[in-house]
Amino acid sequence: MMAVVDYNYCFTYINIGCNGRQSDGGVFLNSLLCDALENDLLPADGFIVGDDAFPLKKYLMKPYSRISLTKGQKIFNYRLSRARRIVENAFGILVSRFRVFEKPMSCLPSTVDKIIRTCCALHNWLRITSASNYMPRGSIDEEDISTMVALHKGRGEMILPISLDPPPEAQAIILLDMHDR
Fold first, then answer.
1. In this prediction, what percent of the chain has a pLDDT beyond 90?
2. Domain residues for 91?
3. Which residues cross the membrane (predicted)?
4. 23, 132, 147, 157: least CB-packed within 10 angstroms?
């Protein structure tokens, strides 16, 4: 499943049913989303954040390759990975709230597609209408602004970030990721 998630953990685009042997970048390049983005779907100041699997485009930011990075490139990669936590958290919330994703589904592929689309729609509706009940404190990675420490849910990790500023228009950031279903 390939998905685009907004700053509020809502799925704004999903692509289901790709051949598992197709690369993430290949799935993206063959998607309707890619066609729309190539035709200036995003606002002028909007962009998508992806991982290494995606091609670098004028609308798609991805990390520098990990070979011989400068300090500035390492900082950029860290900030980009920090933004990508939103999409990772959205998938984590979806799986934890809809336990049908915890094991293989024994039904027709067309039924699996309907289940995934329905769960994503319900996730968005619950996220918007009942955020505090649907996503209680601790269900996502959080950051303590006063201490500048990122707390990663369920992994027992803490990362001391480099001084970071939030993007000027968080709503213009859309996050893209692939997850095997």
1. 24
2. 2-136+164-177
3. none
4. 132
